[in-house]
Design goal:
The protein is an alpha+beta fold. It has a single domain, classed as GYF domain (Dna Ligase, domain 1, 2-Layer Sandwich). It has 2 helices and 4 strands, in the order ββαββα. Strands 2-1-3-4 form a 4-stranded antiparallel sheet. β3 and β4 form a beta hairpin. The radius of gyration is 10 Å and the shape is globular.
Length: about 55
Amino acid sequence: MRYFYADSSNQPIGPYTIDELKQLHLNGTVRAENWVVEEGGSQWQPYSNLIAIGG
């Protein structure tokens, strides 16, 4: 699965794999409160929800 994340201007950036998102989180680019959506999806959720369910 691939995901987009919303930047500080709420613009979608990506798509990224979950492993790429994890790396972006580790380097501080993506924070737990950034919104993410599955590629092709419409239901945005905080990145913290994605990592909480094993992402």
